[in-house]
Amino acid sequence: PSLPRHTNRLINEKSPYLLQHAHNPVDWYPWGQEAFDKAKKENKLIFLSVGYSTCHWCHVMEEESFKNEEIGEIMSKNFVCIKVDREERPDVDKVYMTFVQVTSGGGGWPMSVWLTPDLKPFAGGTYFPPEDGVHRVGFRTVLLRIAEQWKENKDALLESSQKILEALLHVSEIRVQGQESPPPAKEVMATCFQQLSNSYDEDYGGFSESPKFPTPVNLNFLFTYWALHRTTPEGARALQMALHTLKMMAHGGIHDHICQGFHRYSTDQHWHVPHFEKMLYDQGQLAATYSRAFQISGDKFFADVAQDILLYVSRDLSDQAGGFYSAEDADSYPTTESGEKREGAFCVWTAEEIRALLPDPVEGATEGTTLGDVFMHHYGVKETGNVSPMKDPHQELKGKNVLIVRCSPELTASRFGLEPECVGALLQEGQHRLAAARAQRPRPHLDTKMLAAWNGLMISGFAQAGAALAEQKYVSRASQAAAFLQRHLFDPTSGRLLRSCYRGRDGTVEQSTVPIQGFLEDYVFVIQALFDLYEASLEQSWLEWALQLQHMQDKLFWDPKGFAYFSSEAGDPSLLLRLKGDQDGAEPTANSVTVTNLLRAACYSGHMEWVEKAGQILAAFSERLRKIPLALPEMARATAVFHHTLKQVVICGDPQGEDTKEMLRCVHSVFSPNKVLMLADGDSAGFLHRQLPFLASLERKDGKATAYVCSNFSCSLPVTSPQELCGMLSP
């Protein structure tokens, strides 16, 4: 390629998203003091653009506006232009997204916000087309109008930005009211179940018409609801809703049937045509959720899907040093000769391509049947393409097929006069050949940034799958990633986590000149991961690190006045608001997950003030939990765990002994949302024995591995039979 005509200071950044904009004809600055000083010194407004590297509409706005010389000139002349990667700086993103949502009723990325020189927002939106259209004002017009307003009505703008800030402070405050206590679990669980049940799609699963997101938080809530109401019709419905949704997603086009893993969301009701980017946080949560579905149902289908996700992540999102990359893009070049990228190009097929790849006659089938016929029938492939024009506004998928399982293996078999057991092997052969053909296509962009929070979610996915599926290799992969976090995203001198690190040019792991400090979500998801990893591996060092991080989280983020944790720490003058997330969405919000973390931490340490903190968080969110728990299904789930008190399952035995392993297999095979597992190996100098003196009084019966189920540190009678232990864990 020819040398770029323009280069701005984003060229010195590490974020793949900022580097994508380093050759725009715009005088971009990264978020930081240099830009703030320039705005103040020159008395200029700031234009803030926030996005992420695998965001489709961010690419569109860049192509149309930020690469346009004339628009670039208007931007640079009138504004100090700042680019932010929302995955690097979720704190900055949340502050201004709160503003955009309150003022426009919607939000999303790219986010475009105009700020006064002291960083107060006064105008904003998301994507703007470059020029005026019938229904929308164009980006060029907006830029010129705002620049004009600043010249003519500076004082009015400053005054209104101050009022907006005061209103935002008021709207976004979450705090405990008076003497509020945690809301009653029964009521919160019942309301949340009812709200999910009312929005459930009986035919296709999921909880909305379209678009449809995987939202694992909903499914995890339903599993816990079922576990606490197994014998009731509501309990049975909760389980059916969750398992049906997981099945429909796995059959749908949102699931990549050729190269594994899940796309971000479906644009239609049927889980068929997705937005094709693949995010690490989805893979981590879904691997854990499918593993739980297997634990509960015993249906190997769910175990296979969990393994499929972990294969994708191990192959395509793993750094050689042990960390996990953030995402793969939706857009790519259809062929090596193509001049422009298209959404989904890497993943979709014409009928002709599939026929050419699978021409072999199928033995034992109706005459003339080829492997292509069987494959196309099973995956809903049509000659003219299977994507409705309604779902393809830019005609990028015309004539193409997104694979979706349309038949059971039995139906496909009977259609071609085959035995059902042959179909699996035929489809697998088809998948291998299509995967080989896809490997020749240009790959989508890979975001090689490694984030502590998302690595935490993925470690949980590997650890939980390793335990539930009894696969040691997954537990080892989780340990390798946790060691990576300790090496590259933790500062042992300060005891603090870092937010991000990056793959360098030569494949080494790099850090920015000024590393970004970890946010609340980094601590919460990493602590959760370390507890999950301890339960899967029984390595006490992970437990010790988790408890150290929990103390650090308390110190940096706890709100002693209003309770619960702030998303970002105090002391950053460029952050106008310290917010508390109040929505479990594609990822759970940090305060929701931390409730269960605190309860687990108390069980492993005996520090009961952590139980008190968990209750204070629930009290701070009490009103929301009573009225719309649907917005916080993970916190609603945690409310039940809080009220039912965690069961400490203690196994006294030799970690290498066969009898101990059998006991552990039994614990891992049962879904019990309120259990905490620990191994008492008799080493009185070990970390757990030092933390929990009561373990010394528990002994092995007749020299055999012995289990105790304890609650609030008082224990049941000893049990030496794995079957009996299983019975105690599943009521």
Automatic annotation (TrEMBL):
Q: Where is the Spermatogenesis-associated protein 20-like TRX domain?
A: 7-168
User: Out of the domains of life, which is the source?
Assistant: Eukaryota
InterPro entries for the chain: 6-hairpin_glycosidase_sf, 6hp_glycosidase-like_sf, Ssp411, Ssp411-like_TRX, Thioredoxin-like_sf
Transmembrane ranges, per UniProt, are none
Q: Which Pfam families match?
A: Thioredox_DsbH (PF03190)
In Gene Ontology terms, what is a biological process of this protein?
A: carbohydrate metabolic process
Give the matching PANTHER family.
SPERMATOGENESIS-ASSOCIATED PROTEIN 20
Protein name, entry field: SPT20 protein
Question: What species does this protein belong to?
Answer: Aegotheles bennettii
